[in-house]
Every structure is written in C-alpha cells, then in structure tokens.
Amino acid sequence: MNLPTCYLCSSDLSTVVFNFLKPDRFEKIMRIGGQGFFREWRSCDSCGLLYTNRSYIENLNSGLYEKKYRDPKVQGENIESKAKRILNLPIIESDSAMRAERLKISVERVGKMFFNWRPTKRKVLDIGAGLNIFLAKFQDSNWVATAVEVDQEACNYSEKHLGIKTICGTYDSHLIDEEKFDLITLNRVIEHTDDPIHLISSCKSNLKDNGLLYIEAPDAVTALVNNAKNRETFCSPHYMLFDPLTLSMVVKKSGFYILEIQRVLEPSGGFSINVLCCKSTVINKF
Question: In terms of pTM, does the model score above 0.90?
C-alpha cells in the first residue's frame, strides 16, 4: 500500500490512529465500500497533522453536499425540523449560539485593538453556512449577513425562514464578484476539504484590508478522549484535523496572520479550535 505524504510538511512518516473497515452512512449513500474497503486516520510523525488515507480514490464530497448530505436518511430528520430544533435550544446548550456570542466579543476586541474599529454597521460572510443557524444567532443591527452554501434546499430554507441572503454554490474568489466584507467565517468547513490552504487563501479577495477571518474546526485533541473513534469528528466527510501547531501552519501558508487562537469545549461535548486572523500583508501597518 502506497501511503500518502503529509499535506502540510510532506513527510512520508506517519502512524495509524484509527482504522475503519466498514463504510459509514455518508459513504454508504455515495455507494462507496465493497471488498478491500478501508479508511484510516493517520498522524504525521513530523508535524502532527491528522489526515485520512482511504481505499477509494473518489472524492467523497464531490456531489455529497449538493444532493445527499442533508438527506433525512443520512441526518435522521429533514432540514426544517433540524433547524427548528437547534434554533430553539437554550443558548448554553447550543454550539452555534455560544459560538456567535464568543465571536462577537472577540471580533470587537481584536478589531479595536489592531485596526481601531469603531462602532458602525459591518458586513459578515459565512462560507459553508449549512442551515445558517450561526448567522441567525450572530446577525443583529450591527451586522449585515451574507451566506454561501452549496445545498440548494438549505439555501431556500435560509432565505425563506431566516431572511438571510444566501448564495448557492461552492465558494471561490469569483463567486461573489468584488464585494468586500469586514468579517469572513469558516465554521467547521476546512476539515471537509483536501486542500484547506486553497480555500482559506481565496478568502482574501472578499476580505477588507482591515477585515478579520474566523476559522473554526474540530480539535485534533478529540483523538485522545474516551471512545474517540465513534465520534462524528472522524466521519468520512472529514479529511484533516488540526491542533494549534498545524492550524497555525495552514493559516500562515494561506497568507494570513493569527491574532487570537482558542480551544473550546462545546455545549454538545465536542472539542473545537478556532483562530481569528488578518491578511499577512497588513501586519506591517499596525
């Protein structure tokens, strides 16, 4: 078996963390499996990045998010019922609501500290917005929200029921013309791509020079907790997991500079890591 090299440091030395010999529900709905199937999580012996090695060469996520990721057969409920259930959670029980509250505080503090932000109406773009629960909790009189989401049904729900402008499609630097935002958020998105550096780099074209980029992903420390293998963190749509070192490497390679980094235990029991950063090109202007 030819082992993949590390995406971040190109090391060919790695250690198996978990090995799955049966397809999960996402692989099954995409008809991936059969004789010789495996999906393993490996830890780079050099930089510590957690990444997957698979028996199949198909890009699982190609087509999954457009058509099947929100399928009730996969999620266990339809879009509307899931959205209503999460929206009605008490704040202290909702990952999205707590994320929105944390981020508002961090953005105002960091924006004022580094860019002399003053109270004014600002624009936020959420990429890979899903059901738009986060933006529904984040937007207020100070923030004008726009979302990008690939699933058409989720986009329709967001615009009809939440009143959030939602652009349907896969984000790249050409999807939103030349509009600039004060804040761009990637909430649990970069683990779903096999090239997070490309995705993060593309955000520069839609971010103001004094703007902030927020990135959140599942924390690689999850691999160390009890019964970790059975957590959703290690599902097949995820390609990489990061710790403070490897997430910092990705951000730097993408042309951004970290202003704040946090590790969070979510109300749901999940472990997250997040960074608030700015374009590297503006560092010398501080």
Answer: yes
Question: For residues 28 and 285, what is the distance between their CA atoms, to the nearest angstrom?
Answer: 51
Strand order in the sheet with 122-127: 165-168, 143-149, 122-127, 181-187, 207-218, 271-279, 256-265
Q: Show the tokens assigned to 121.
A: 């109406």
Q: How far is it, in rounded angstroms, from Cα 194 to Cα 17?
A: 19
Q: For each of the domains in the chain, give its residue range(s) and CATH number, in order of start.
A: 91-285 (3.40.50.150)
**pLDDT digit string, tens, across residues 175-184:** 887 899 999 9
Model confidence pLDDT, tens digit, residues 157-191 = 999 999 999 999 999 877 887 899 999 999 999 99
